[in-house]
Specification:
single chain; 262 residues; alpha/beta; Rossmann fold; seven-stranded parallel β-sheet; 11 helices; 49% helix; binds nicotinamide-adenine-dinucleotide
Amino acid sequence: MKKNKDKRVAVVTGAAQGIGCRVAELLAERGYRLAVNDLRMPDAPIERIRSRGGEVIGYAGDITDESVVEGWVRGVYDSWGRADVLVNNAGISFIAAAENTSRGDYRRVLDVNLVAPFLLAKAFGKRMLAAGHGSIVNVASVAGLVGIADRAAYNASKHGLVGLTRTLAAEWGGRGVRVNAVCPGWVKTEMDVADQASATYTDADITGRIPMARFATKDDIASAIAFLADDKQSGFINGHALTVDGGWVADGSWESLRRRHR
Ligand SMILES: NC(=O)c1ccc[n+]([C@@H]2O[C@H](COP(=O)([O-])OP(=O)(O)OC[C@H]3O[C@@H](n4cnc5c(N)ncnc54)[C@H](O)[C@@H]3O)[C@@H](O)[C@H]2O)c1
């Protein structure tokens, strides 16, 4: 029993599919007990983690609702008694020209991608601060570092999330709670498939712009998140926005120059 109490606990939002699902599984493989959330019960990672002998609890609910967040935090502490890692992964995409983006669309994207991570960081962060340790990893995007056309709401939300990351790192680092962000490039998840179906870009548009000439895998992103989560691996990294993009943000080369180096 004591052994279980000593096992670290990781909390992951938006874990039903995509990056969040893989992050939950990887953290379970690394020995964490998991608490996973999504709009619907995240059955896929729960079944896989349990089938491999891992421990996981699920919580269905919209994390833009503060009462859902509060209920989940209570559920996690009632079940596991602690939370060592919070991964703010849940997010939504929105692609439209700025002049066609309504106030409602803009607000919804900010609510999910920026307000909800704040609510979660606040709710879990208070308890982490009381315990004197914790690690929060926010899943931002390369869209949180540079502008990309037709994504005013999404890019503003991800830039905001990077700013929130740095500010919480400044406020909480001295009390044992580190806060970092990962900034993925393009990953082949349901989000990307839906974006490609509704918008005008192809795989080749993406891979042609990336020095390493491929999409990120879910494992590329999950490994970076697991690294930032773990005090043993990244204990003095705080307030960092880690790009995991095959060099997309770093590369200012023009098209023909980039291709000449393939
Ligand atoms: N896929 C990419 O290319 C890419 C690139 C950069 C950053 N990201 C970011 O990575 C994160 C995960 O993206 P993904 O590609 O796995 O997306 P995805 O759409 O496949 O999965 C996101 C999950 O979040 C959940 N979710 C959405 N709103 C929620 C809410 N209000 N409450 C609870 N859960 C909610 C969804 O139901 C879904 O299961 C997002 O924050 C996204 O912005 C993705």
